Amino acid sequence: MVRVAEPVIQVDELVRTFHTRRGLFRRSGKEVEAVRGVSFTVERGELFGLLGPNGAGKTTTIKMLITLLLPTAGRARVLGHDVVKDAHDVRGKVGYVFGGDRGLYERLSGLDNLRYFAELYGVPARESKQRVGELLELVGLVGREKERVEGYSRGMRQRLHIARGLLHRPEVLFLDEPSIGIDPVGARELRATVKNLVDAGTTVLLTTHYMFEADELCDRIAVIAQGRIVAQGTPADLKQQVTTGTVIEIEIFGLPDGVLEKVRAEPDVQSVVVDVQGQAQVLTVHAQPGADVLQAVMAHLEGSRFGRVITREPTLEDAYIELVNAA
Amino acid sequence: MNSLRLFFVGGLISYRALFGWLSPWILIPTFLFAPLFQIFLFVYIGRTAGVSDDRFFLIGNAVVNAAVPCLFAMGNTIGGERNAGTLPLLIASPAKRVPLFLGRALPVILNGFLVAVFALVVGALLLRVDLPPATWGGIAVAIAACSISCTGLGLLGAAVALRVRETAVMSNIVLGTLIVFAGVNVPVGAMPGWMQGVAQWLPMTHGIHATHDLAAGRSLGSVSGALLTELLLGAFYATLGLALLRWLEWESRARATLDTA
């Protein structure tokens, strides 16, 4: 008999509504549906991305999965444990890392922060010292571990967060925008660390705003917008779902008046976006599938001074923007 | 074993992490000078008014100062986590809550004990109040009982911090209540009946009474009933605090108040 492995994370129609009240005497209430029936599964050893704009419900979903929030409706299981009924079992087996400066004991050294969290996660005393040493090595904080965290840079704090999340060798790791505020070198090292963890068998659920990061790392992605999942699949699947064709990026110095409207009016042009980059403006033109609009667009720009002109296929970012805008 | 480590090692680390007064600039004035000023104030008021003797005011005001760390540091157990942004991590950890929070109480009890002992010893020396060496051991036991019971009440305050952002205000009110009701400057027997009723349920009342008796030469055995009552009150408040922590932890997950209380 073939036994089908249960997904490591199984989310079924998960809903979370927040109730807020204002006023001291004449209290008025407001309901916000942050997550509206989200469903997805994550298999063992998979790196699953949850992408979405701010307020889409990513962090709320993660908070329900790590037992910090109770769902309003629906259910979720992590490693076979119900996140409501078996919260204690879930907590011991998952790790949670979030981005930003907070979430560390400022008055303690990095080493003492890790020692304390090792106690909270029940890392046996005989393993604790060695494990903390390994993780300090992994995140590159050796030599700085005895300094108080209040003197750490944002990147160092983020690396300490990651070490903290890995102390108890979690089977599932939730990374909520872990690379936020980290410099490019640090972000690259973080991606390498995450890859190594997945190679070693850890299941990872990642949220990020950096599309190249998701494209590089994720086996599968779910795009969430306004509390609902609007698309799910591999990065390649999502790119194929994009209805746009070729993308043209034109760097131009001094965009003449009225040109933008003329380009938009071209029948094969789907959308046009202008982004100011230093002294130049970058015109990003999305063509209809199968159409070649380069010559038509360039004709409108005759007489202008150009920088680089790039023609490329749609990226994950293009797919993401289209999916989120359509939601 | 893990629970024991969480109790002892975890408790000590968290005390260092969360108790913002562990700086000489705050610690010395708050724990060493302020109690002495309070003792001097009431001793001189007592002398001027011609009521009671110096020893009465010295003991009450020295012992009640154990409540300062016991209430504020314990109350900060949750409030400090919220300020540091570590509260969600604490709640999402699998750590057993009883050793976790009782472990946090241990250094606080020691802190309270040392503050009161310092105030009593230095106050006695400066005011030339005679405390015979034979009474020192018994008085130390009584102060320890007061520190334990007050920390129990502080744990209840810590639990409330899961629902209320600012706990220092609440701790100040509780401290004021102890100074008024617990027989610090007015003997409980001289208070109106309803105040005596309140005093019986407060930490410090029985411990301070026992300390007065011990300083007057009575044996430890003769005040054991009062000290046991003091400890039972501490256990009662601590149990109430742990139960409230459990309930409010669940409620905070339901109402999403961990970050926003």
TrEMBL record, chain A:
Alphabetized InterPro entries for the sequence: AAA+_ATPase, ABC_transporter-like_ATP-bd, ABC_transporter_ATP-binding, P-loop_NTPase
Major location (coarse): membrane
Which GO cellular component terms, listed alphabetically, does the Swiss-Prot or TrEMBL entry include?
A: plasma membrane
Cell compartments where the protein resides: Cell membrane
Cross-referenced Gene3D superfamilies: P-loop containing nucleotide triphosphate hydrolases
Which key words are in the record? Antibiotic resistance, ATP-binding, Nucleotide-binding, Transport
Q: How does it sit in the membrane?
A: Peripheral membrane protein
The record's GO molecular-function terms, alphabetically, read:
ATP binding; ATP hydrolysis activity
Q: Where is the ABC transporter domain?
A: 9-251
Can the keyword Transport be found in this entry's annotation? yes
**Keyword hit for DNA damage:** no
One GO biological process this protein is involved in is:
response to antibiotic
**Name this protein carries in UniProt:** ABC-2 type transport system ATP-binding protein
Q: Which organism is it from?
A: Asanoa hainanensis
UniProtKB/TrEMBL annotation, chain B:
PANTHER family per record: ABC-TYPE MULTIDRUG TRANSPORT SYSTEM, PERMEASE COMPONENT, NODULATION PROTEIN J
Q: Name one GO molecular function term.
A: ABC-type transporter activity
Instruction: Write down a Pfam family by its short name.
Output: ABC2_membrane
Q: How does it sit in the membrane?
A: Multi-pass membrane protein
Ranges for domain ABC transmembrane type-2 come to 21-248
Signal peptide as annotated in the record: none
Membrane-crossing segments per the record: 21-44, 56-74, 105-127, 139-161, 173-195, 223-245
What is the scientific name of the source organism? Asanoa hainanensis
Q: For this entry, list what GO says about its biological process.
A: response to antibiotic
Give the family, as the similarity comment puts it.
Belongs to the ABC-2 integral membrane protein family.
The entry's keywords: Antibiotic resistance, Cell membrane, Membrane, Transmembrane, Transmembrane helix, Transport
Can you list the GO cellular component terms from the UniProt entry?
ATP-binding cassette (ABC) transporter complex
Does Transport count among this protein's keywords? yes
Q: Does the keyword 4Fe-4S apply?
A: no
Q: Which PROSITE patterns match?
A: ABC_TM2
Q: Where in the cell is it found?
A: Cell membrane; Membrane
Protein name per its UniProtKB record: Transport permease protein
